[in-house]
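Service request form, structural biology core

Requester: graduate student, group of Dr. S.
Request type: structure prediction, single chain
Budget code: on file
Notes: please return the result as structure tokens.

Sequence provided:
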Amino acid sequence: MNRWIRRAAAAAAIAVLAGVAHAQPFPGKPSSMMLAVLAKPDVREKIAAAGVDVDPLDSAGLAQAIDAEIKRWARWVKDANIQPE
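Core staff response, request fulfilled:
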């Protein structure tokens, strides 16, 4: 088995993104509202019943997570010498 396949793992991530223009009237509000909803036990239970783990992040945390994923995949692509076709 290829060494890259052995080290691979798959996970799906769902994020709610909105452009800056949408957040201007309510800075920080959409993020804080979403975090408040996802913190409710009944909401978490319903999401868990669908087989999904909830790991909510604020805007800064989501930006860091996306940046880390881009860097990780870029390193894997470079190490595997994958070239665009």
